[in-house]
Amino acid sequence: MDYAKDGRGKLITASEAAAGLYYRCPECRADVFLKLGKKNAAHFAHRRGQGRPECELFHPSYYLAGPAPRYDIHADANAPPIPPLLISIELDPTPQSRLTGIRDWKLALTVPKASDAHGMVRIDCGAGTPRLIALSKLALDAQTYPAALNAEDFGATWVSPEVHPRYKAAIEHRVPGLNRLLANVFVNDKQKQKPFANFLTWGGSYYLVWHDSRPLDIPASLASSQLAKRDGWCCSIVTLPDDGDADIQRWIEESCDLTIAQPRRRWCVVYPPAIDIDSLGQLSLASNHQFVLATFAPAREDDEQGLLVATAGRSTASAPTRHGTQFFTIQHDAKSDTPVALTWDGFALPEITQTVAQDALSSLGAAFAFRSRSGADRYGCLLHQAQIEPLLQAVRRSELDISTISLLAGCTGEFKWRKSLRDEWKATHLSIDRGGTRREIDEDLVKRVNLILQDASFDVLLDFGALGSRYLEAHLHRAEDTQQTRLPPAVRERLLWFCIAAQSYPRGTPLTALADEALLRHFRTAATPPFLIAHRRHLDGLLRPATDLSGAA
Questions:
Q1: Range of 250's domain?
Q2: DSSP character string of 61-103
């Protein structure tokens, strides 16, 4: 090594040092001494028995590491491949601020494990001086080091002659850094290092990293959580919906240049509904002491069972899984802040945590607060509770106003309205600012919701998915619309049967409650499974003269 610390702790170079004095290694604090030879330049070396392979400045002498070996390339042909250098991101275990919850992150470069301890390598991590690493350290395990966010690529700049040729070829291959033109995608898993993603799957969570010179407009329909900004780079964790969405798929392909695949196995928390995914990828529930989990796995040729394992603190429980859909109830008595770790056949699922809400009501769903025009009367209710129906009808009659809509950070919803059954829905997303401290929707947006609700000529739909939905029908145009088309009872029954068989249901109102015009619109947009194609053609033939059906019996 070229430098060491003297007895006063001052860093000194070998050319400035004097022989016979006391020096220490600046990394491991072990004793080192000055070597002044005729062939090599002056340098420091660890004293015999003092150096450790864990020290980055330790270079074992030949009497420790042995002579440089001679490798037989052909004999190693069947050896397992050596992984290349790996780029990943690491998250700070604690947020920068407990108030906002914004978490710091960094880019990391992982150097693969070496098969032996002979030689040294110098790795360019993009942060100035390359890092000198002894293979005696890499022989213990792969090592991870901080990497520069703005570096174009990473790789080895020098490899000593005694390094195995296969290992040399693996680390000399340079790997590219972050792409400034696209969003870089990293997998959310239980490992400390989150690696690059080669593709995405529906229902998965991923970290997106992009440069602020090309802003990324994340769709409001995606649950997302922002991380800290570093050196001009932004990072957010996003969660894709379980079901495919053409708009989101198009956005991923354009922003990330990656494809989205449908996973073979699927799982979800059935109850209570998940209300947030934090920056660590943990799934938050109002309470994780007892929840219902559903799994789906396709049939396998060997019909082998899987295994679902849940761990909370020191308690562990497991249950076998089979093909098809299964439901599991997980219950534990650990402390409230203890997360539940889940693994399915060794694959780690997101941990289940209990969220800390500012009030008990909003922790259970979408909480609506109402007040009278005079301000004397106030009411509170959750969207999925039956008591909210008369309160919303009172808003329709201009007797009450919605004062606030409270949500947790991961909740998103839609507010839709239309004038006629023949019109397309207009929609706006209802969510909160994840970077702020308030858990209420913007006041201007709440005022807009009130104005549209109080116009009785609009059909209105409040949809928060698993947290509840409410459909309020218009009062003025319904009689006119229902007289536009009248289906024969037999044809209507066939249409209802087809939609039920195809498992196609409208959102916000029961299928059987649809007027004839609305039922026709829903039937024409319904997807047709292969086994119903013949029925679809027959119904299309019956409905071809749809304009002549009015008044038919």
A1: 184-261
A2: -HHHH-SPP---TGGGTTSPPPP--EEEEEE-SS-S-TTT---
